[in-house]
Amino acid sequence: MADLQEFRQSVRSWLEANAPKTLRGKVTDLTFTYSGGRKGKPPHPDCIPWLNMMAERGWTIPFWPKEYGGGGLDKQETKILQEEMLRLELPPPLSGMGITMIGPTVLQYGTEEQKKLYIPQIVKGEIRWCQGYSEPNAGSDLANIQTKAIVDGDDYIVNGQKIWTSGGNESDWIFMLVRTNPNVKKQAGITFLLCDLETEGIEVRPIKLISGASIFCEVFFEDVRVPRNQILNRVDGGWEVARALLGHERTMIAGLGSRPAAPTAEDRVEAAAKKNIGLENGKIADEVIRSRMAQVQIDESSFKLTVQRNSDNMKAGHRPGPESSIFKIYGTELNQRREELLLSIFGPECLGWEGDGFDAKELELCRTWLRSRGNTLEGGSSEIQLNIIAKQVLNLPD
Ligand SMILES: Cc1cc2nc3c(=O)[nH]c(=O)nc-3n(C[C@H](O)[C@H](O)[C@H](O)COP(=O)(O)OP(=O)(O)OC[C@H]3O[C@@H](n4cnc5c(N)ncnc54)[C@H](O)[C@@H]3O)c2cc1C
User: Fold this and answer.
1) Domain covering 2-95: architecture
2) Which CATH architecture has domain 255-393?
3) How far is the CA of 373 from the centre of ligand 1 (A)?
4) Mean pLDDT across the chain, nearest whole number?
5) How far apart are CA 100 and CA 89, in angstroms?
6) Which of 9, 50, 112, 170 could serve as a FRET partner for 382 with CA atoms 20 to 30 Å apart?
């Protein structure tokens, strides 16, 4: 215990002395999210030194093994570091698919050589990753992927197309599923590849959305050479890896909005209700809204504790299994309920898309609400999660 107190003291002093003053107090500001990489623009110039100084200690992912550049901290030390960062209200130095999805998967399935190569780059945020799973005819039926990889000497030659690749145009590498054997059961002929997006023959085309933004891309592969040593696990062993990664993805999506100290139902919804509806005898004046608020607050608090317990277990080496689908359904539906509640509180003010009639906060509310609709699709739709829970958690018959 004395050791932990000493550890806390040393973390506190180090953060006090080094963490950029400009980033203190920004933990609740979700625009202070930085995914690193060669193309990434930090939301503030000080995000770069903040990332570098944390990465140097392995504290971007403090519980990963030291030998691969992680912090090597145990569960309690990791918690202390998080608490001390929260004390100064510092945002996480690094976010993205590297640390939440492909990193843990490389640690689980990578060869020693792959771990030594990729994990330190992920810890330092040197490369940003995107996910090449979905294809035009392989969304929910993910095992139906048709992007082909054919062996040629020490390489695979890849041809095909991915779609809905989030952040593809801002990423450096893609982790992807390819078909290496068309003559077996669909799942048995898939290989998991890691690929540098700068490789000749790759074209990334942003998909322009109605908002004018392009968070999704199509990625085209024409005779792209990918060295064999960029296969994760064995040839035709990609389905197992794909599912393991989805466990991490679903756990991450479920925790949406549960960044420590991020605005909770209590502060975000309550502030909105006080301002827009007002108080009567010290209570929110609208009885129906009040009751919906109470329900969201109760559900959010209990879910946050469950997510925290799960994330503590993961720091202690637990790997998410099919039960991550339960988290995904609950977390995403809760997030949508919260956004719907805000919509009811703000009414028409929340319906602005652009133009002078709405201030920045109102426009953000509308966009956040609409973005939450995608939560129950990305990482596998809710219906697919229910199928997984029925079959793999409850062992119900087909
Ligand atoms: C915000 C967002 C980000 C995304 N980012 C990425 C990314 O970075 N990389 C990537 O590879 N993909 C990404 N996707 C794609 C995502 O994985 C797919 O949208 C998802 O798997 C559903 O596939 P689909 O869109 O083809 O829908 P479909 O598979 O066509 O499904 C349409 C509807 O039918 C239902 N349905 C389909 N099959 C069944 C079934 N067997 N039983 C019951 N209902 C069924 C579905 O639930 C859904 O409601 C993203 C999607 C969103 C919304």
Assistant:
1) Orthogonal Bundle (1.10)
2) Up-down Bundle (1.20)
3) 12
4) 91
5) 21
6) 170
